[in-house]
């Protein structure tokens, strides 16, 4: 029995937790209690940094500020109830920390998986209440001495990890701010809670729930759809217009019908490998961008309030389906989105903030020029907002060439038109600019999305990079053989210019020379 008496001078038996991080034990009054035990270095700020792990990996975590003041949130979810510490019996420079969690039965399995993954990074050891502790090896001591909690920035590495990161909603969800158009509408608030509950219950890999939209919701959609449909031919970029009729044919894009996310997700999967995932509202920039690395787009299912169909203080299904989806069906744009997501994984808070700003002024509010120099829109925030779409291509708008340094210094406006917009010559140029910026992000590793395993590979060693090189070499050989056969049969490449086989062979040979 564990009585959570660490630091009080009483005897305490701590169960082994390496095989099961979340332990259920019977307290003094027969109440089930959940404990996590781990060690950390005895230094200023170590505990606060460790608690960030709980905030990152627990979907309903109530922050340490409430715990340290003795308050326990009554909101359903996972609450951090108690923190106790004692000097480690194994090493004088360490502290042993016991954390008590208030966790409902429905969340125990998820919390257990999340903490196992995170605490394994903290060198979680086996503890017991005896006097004898096994000595640590010199190698493990050296590793622990060089460990710094500041270096840990959790990010999802497999698709199922999105079940954790996609639940941390920043704004709205089932609650609305006082200035929200639907704040005083009890029917709308009840409807929003319904959508929020669906999103919070969703698990990666499940079919997205199909929604029976009300007549009022379909009417609101129709008002927006009709006006935007009139503006798209003269304002939207060619890549957007190319996919619009395809969505009408295959996904039910009509004035009198709100497309179902599962139908759209299936379509995108076939086109570019992207899928949709329902969320309850605004996610943190880090969590939203991280999903893009897996070619997963976080998408809401609710619709804005009918009292003001041309304004919404938050993303809704009109914004996602009308603004984002047509370009997510474009291979180049899909790759652009994924590269931004990959660049965010493990990045510092400042770098993520800059990436989010770059995302905002490209994928949300970006413009590009045609061969004739005419400005066209590819940003979803513009393509789903009638008033700002008209404004962005008017003479009144300030439109500047896209420069990452200038963009990251520009304020993102939420409730008003943007003070300035940025354009590139093409989507490819925007992608190149983003790649240049991503190369400046300081990370001690690289990341790569493995489409076969649907996971993110952390390239932190020469061996891991070598494995990637082997895969690329195989792909290049396939491409080289295809080009040779096309040349031998007198075929052409569609007018795009022939890739020289000699140049391709040189690349393959260079990869052979550099691989370990």
Automatic annotation (TrEMBL):
Binding site for L-tryptophan: 282, 304, 312, 384, 414
GO biological process terms, semicolon-separated: aromatic amino acid metabolic process; developmental pigmentation; dopamine biosynthetic process
Cofactor: Fe(2+)
Ligand binding (Fe cation): 319, 324, 364
A GO CC term attached to the entry: neuron projection
Pfam families referenced in this protein's UniProt entry, alphabetically: Biopterin_H
Organism encoding this protein: Darwinula stevensoni
Name of the protein this chain belongs to: Biopterin-dependent aromatic amino acid hydroxylase family profile domain-containing protein
InterPro entries attached to this UniProt entry: ACT-like_dom_sf, ArAA_hydroxylase, ArAA_hydroxylase_Fe/CU_BS, ArAA_hydroxylase_sf, Aro-AA_hydroxylase_C_sf, Aromatic-AA_hydroxylase_C, Tyrosine_3-monooxygenase-like
Keywords, in A-Z order: Iron, Metal-binding, Monooxygenase, Oxidoreductase
Gene Ontology molecular function: any one: iron ion binding
Organism domain of life: Eukaryota
Species lineage: Eukaryota, Metazoa, Ecdysozoa, Arthropoda, Crustacea
Annotated PROSITE patterns: BH4_AAA_HYDROXYL_1, BH4_AAA_HYDROXYL_2
Domain Biopterin-dependent aromatic amino acid hydroxylase family profile: 139-487
Family to which this protein belongs: Belongs to the biopterin-dependent aromatic amino acid hydroxylase family.
């Amino acid at each position: 029995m564990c009585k959570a008496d660490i630091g009080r001078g009483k005897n305490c038996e701590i169960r082994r937790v390496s095989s099961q991080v979340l332990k259920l034990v019977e307290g003094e009054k027969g109440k089930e209690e959940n404990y996590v035990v781990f060690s950390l270095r005895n230094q200023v700020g170590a505990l606060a940094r460790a608690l960030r792990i709980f905030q990152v990996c627990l979907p309903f975590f109530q922050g340490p500020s409430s715990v340290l003041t003795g308050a326990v949130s009554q909101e359903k979810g996972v609450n951090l109830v108690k923190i106790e510490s004692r000097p480690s019996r194994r090493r004088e420079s360490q502290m042993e920390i016991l954390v008590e969690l208030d966790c409902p039965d429905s969340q125990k399995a998820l919390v257990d998986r999340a903490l196992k993954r995170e605490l394994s990074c903290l060198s979680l050891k086996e503890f017991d209440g005896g006097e004898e502790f096994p000595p640590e090896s010199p190698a493990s001591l050296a590793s622990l001495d060089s460990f710094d909690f500041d270096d840990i920035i959790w990010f999802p590495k497999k698709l199922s990890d999105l079940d954790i990161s996609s639940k941390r909603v920043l704004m709205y969800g089932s609650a609305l701010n006082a200035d929200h158009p639907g704040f005083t509408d009890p029917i709308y608030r009840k409807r929003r809670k319904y959508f929020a509950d669906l999103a919070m219950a969703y698990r990666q890999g499940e079919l997205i729930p199909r929604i029976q939209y009300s007549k009022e919701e379909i009417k609101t959609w129709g008002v927006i759809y009709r006006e935007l449909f009139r503006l798209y031919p003269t304002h939207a970029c060619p890549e957007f217009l190319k996919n619009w009729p395809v969505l009408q044919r295959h996904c039910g894009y009509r004035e009198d019908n709100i497309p179902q996310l599962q139908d759209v997700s299936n379509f995108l999967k076939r086109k570019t490998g992207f899928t949709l995932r329902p969320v309850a509202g605004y996610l943190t920039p880090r969590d939203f961008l991280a999903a893009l690395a897996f070619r997963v787009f976080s998408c809401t299912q609710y619709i804005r309030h009918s009292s003001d169909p041309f304004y919404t203080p938050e993303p809704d299904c009109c914004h996602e389906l009308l603004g984002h989806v047509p370009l997510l069906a474009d291979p180049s744009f899909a790759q652009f989105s994924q590269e931004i997501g990959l660049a965010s994984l493990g990045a510092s808070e400042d770098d993520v903030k800059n990436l989010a700003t770059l995302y905002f002024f490209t994928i949300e509010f970006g413009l590009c020029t045609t061969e004739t120099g005419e400005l066209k829109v590819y940003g979803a925030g513009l393509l789903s907002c009638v008033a700002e779409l008209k404004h962005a291509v008017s003479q009144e708008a300030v439109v500047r060439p896209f420069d990452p340094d200038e963009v990251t210094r520009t304020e993102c406006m939420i409730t008003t038109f943007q003070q300035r917009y940025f354009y590139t010559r093409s989507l490819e140029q925007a992608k190149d600019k983003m790649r240049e910026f991503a190369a400046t992000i300081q990370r001690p590793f690289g990341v790569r999305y493995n489409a076969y395993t649907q996971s993110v590979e952390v390239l932190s060693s020469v061996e891991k990079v070598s494995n990637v090189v082997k895969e690329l070499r195989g792909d290049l050989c396939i491409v080289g053989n295809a080009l040779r056969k096309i040349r031998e049969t007198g075929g052409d490449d569609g007018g795009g210019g022939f890739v020289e086989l000699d140049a391709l062979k040189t690349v393959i040979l260079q990869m052979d020379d550099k691989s370990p």
